[in-house]
Amino acid sequence: MHPSIISRLWGALFPGGQLRIRLVAAFLAIYICYIAKVIHEFDSHLPKDLDAENLSLLPPRDDKGDVSISVTPPSRAPSEEITRQRSIVLLGPHERYNFGDLLFSKVLARLLEQRAGYDASRILYGGLVSINMTRFGGPSQVFSMKRIQSMSRNDALHGPYDIVYTGGEALGCNHDLGVEMMPTPELRQLAKKEKICDCAYLVPKKLLLPQKSIIESLLSIVDSFLSPPSNQNFAVVNSMGGYPPIKECRAAVSTADFIGYRDRDHLTPDSAIMTKELFSSEIEDTAKVILHELESFLQEVDQGRYIAVQHKIEGVDARILAQTLDKVSRHLKAPIVFFAAGTAPKHDSFSVYDEVSSLMEERSFVYRSEHVLEVVALISKAVAVLGTSLHVRIMAFIHFKPRITWCSEMKHQKFIQLWDASDAPNCLKVNETLPILAKYVGASPEITMDKTVGVYEDSIQQYLSFFDSWSSKLIQKQNPVDPSHKL
Fold first, then answer.
1. Nearest to 303 by CA among 285, 293, 291
2. Residue 457 exposed, middle or buried by CB count within 10 Å (0-12, 13-18, 19+)
3. Which of 7, 9, 10 is nearest to 24 (CA)?
4. Within 13 Å of residue 312, how many CA atoms lie on the same side as its CB?
5. Rounded to an integer, what distance in angstroms lies between the CA atom of residue 46 and that of residue 418?
6. Among candidates 273, 267, 257, 263, which has minimal Cα distance to 470?
7. Residue 88's beta-bridge partner residues?
8. Paired sense of beta strands 162-165 and 88-91, if any
9. Phi and psi dihedrals of 67, rounded to 5?
10. Which end is more exposed in the chain, N or C (fewer Cβ atoms within 10 Å of the end residue's Cβ)?
11. What are phi and psi of 60, to 5 degrees?
12. DSSP-assigned beta bridge partners for residue 399
């Protein structure tokens, strides 16, 4: 055939030049791969133990000469219901002493075990680095996400892993910012080395899937059109704040299967509100130990009363804070006990508390614990709780304590507006503390805990409803003989 004729035929079949040729070639490659897969699967189901002399190209015939065809289906293992066996990763900043972040992972792990039926060995903790957080009340083993990724891709029995983004304001934390929050130069260097994603604590679920060859990837594309993928993993955004996400963190959110925000649409309470419900006995036992430790300090005080106070490094005016706390202490007839809700960079500082304490006229004590449940226990026995931390406010709320929050950030205001009692104080400045706190005390207080109890009970039910909505999908039963079954 003449070359010009071939050229005209090719142009008619594939108008549009190189781009069209590449698209056609890609579809041809996918089709060829699919045919190869069908042939391979068909061949794999043929009997392997037939003798050559018994093979025939024609079906067997009966006595009358008619073709005999068996309609009996091939034998299969009996169908039975089994529970989905994926491991689950709790990803968050629980590789350092962050009060709220450690609470999130503790709450989620206990709910997954007690309410969703997970075995503890199937619950993994992911962060920027691998570290033991036991001394802070956290997990004994946090894995870097680089290590988690390798485990998930190579775990034939329990992978690829599902992932829960535990909460907080991870939507605005890129990897560089996460590295800055590491408490030591060694951990910062390690975090850089273990990086797999530009977002610190929102790693897209696809990064936990096994790596595939080009052929396998093409076959996966074909399979996705024919049936739901059998190796799907799930991702959950758990009561997160700080929307919208920065660009580095959008991919994980946009591909998440279940979403809950504490301050916008898909509204659900902050998971830390579950702390008392899940850890009441541990909190009570720990409180007894703490009160014993404070016994000599509190011995001059009626019934061991004290006011729990926390303040972040940023924005503290030691002299004004000291003067305010002196007034509060005298009015409530109780001393001040300072505590830290996180000692990661830019959080709280015991040295700042020492300075404020030295400027006070009334008695005060700096409680130097860096253990999350010890701090919760301290809050649970206070006569009032003052602080700058959102999760200090939440712990005071769930323990029905008079509470004052020195804040200007939107996250505090959103919690108070959406979840706290209608008569609870809004954000205040330090020098506004006493007039508002005084409304909680006296023979006929203006503010009681009646409304707090009601909204607390409602928020517990709302969070459990959200938790059940996604955890049930992660563990629901499936038929093992149909690997393409959609969860």
1. 291
2. exposed
3. 10
4. 19
5. 63
6. 257
7. 123, 162
8. parallel
9. -70, 130
10. N
11. -65, 155
12. none
Calpha distance 444→421 (Å, rounded): 18
Query: Which residues touch 239 (CB under 8 Å, ≥6 apart)?
Result: 167, 260, 261, 262, 268, 269, 270, 271, 463, 466
Residue for token pair 């809050």:
379
Give the residue carrying structure tokens 């610190």: 200
